[in-house]
Amino acid sequence: MTTTQPAWTATPTDEQAWLGRAREVAAILATDAVARDRAGATPRAEVQLLKDSGLVTLLGPAEHGGGGQNWTTAYRVIREIAVGDGSIGQLIGYHYLWFWAARLVATPEQIAAVEEQATRERWFFGGAVNPRDNDLIITEDGDELVYNGRKSFSTGSRVSDATVLEGVLAGTDKHIFAIVASAQPGIVFNDDWDNLGQRLTESGSVEIRDVRVPWAQAAGYVDREFQPRVYSTLNVPLIQLVFTNFYLGIARGALSTAATYTRERTRPWPYGGDLKDAATEEFYILDAYGDLQSKLWAAEALAERAAAAIEAINAHADTVTERERGEAAVLVAAAKQRAIDTGLEVGSRVYEVTGARASAASVGLDVHWRNIRTHSLHDPVAHKRAEVGRYALLGQIPEPTWYT
């Protein structure tokens, strides 16, 4: 990163101020986003920027120096950050989910303890919770749990202060979440993230070797038994809507970058029989921008509707019903598929409105498409369409799983 950041001192006090702060951060990230993507270096400075700006504390309690904001604001902040850099939009989005993990599954006492310390110390969260891998195996050693295993993806953990672990207690079907310090000998982050897009998310594999956690810190467990709630299953809709919003931010960044290029560098086409003075007067260019912007606005509106459903659930977390949770998940599935389709279309068609010279590596328009294409493979979008189809046709809601 090459741009000097503002000397932030005050914590924003309302949503508009937080969104303004996010736009400031996004503008800093955008100045060298292409160069940083090409370099693929560990984003330590970028995470420090998120800390210095206070954005990591957005969901933290106000009495501990946090923003005290809700998920609607968090999703909008994610979108703004992703406009400047899609990888960092993903990192802040995952951070918010893992910061909220205690709210989802922990006891009230555990929630209070984690959120106070994480907010005051401006922790950045990562997670080793890839469900497609075999779970980490947990064994008991007196009053401690011992985690061992490997996860092939661990987004953000290498640049995190705290890592969320999830595993299964040996000989049982008990899944146990715990928050541990990332910097310890038993957690080994491998430098093996080498994918097409989202290159700065540090999503490589991690080895967990004899990481010890007191039973008292097993999230949501009382006397070694889990206290279940419907709300505990909201982690998947929450993070799927995180995905949706950084896809939309990336798409907006692509469209904005392309528009600047078109205004400043694209030349009108001289062989169509209707020579224009500027590319911005070309009918086909105006038509394409109008089409893409309309589709993006529509996808953003659906994402906002899904966020409102999540917010309604958060307002009565202890009494949410399976039907409420399921209908929110359907809206999230609909918003995600629209964001993917729109984002990929924007990322591809921007070349049509910028011209051949815009394919130069120095312009970096390819970054946006690569980022959405890479992360949108996280889970098959066809299954999201089918979830919406079952609801539309049969009135069925998805059963909670690791992906629904």
Automatic annotation (TrEMBL):
Superkingdom of the source species: Bacteria
Limits of the Acyl-CoA dehydrogenase/oxidase N-terminal domain: 16-111
InterPro entries for the chain: Acyl-CoA_DH_C, Acyl-CoA_Oxase/DH_mid-dom_sf, AcylCo_DH-like_C, AcylCoA_DH/ox_N, AcylCoA_DH/ox_N_sf, AcylCoA_DH/oxidase_NM_dom_sf
Keyword list, A-Z: Oxidoreductase
Domain Acyl-CoA dehydrogenase C-terminal: 242-378
Official protein name in the record: Acyl-CoA dehydrogenase family protein
Annotated organism of origin: Actinokineospora guangxiensis
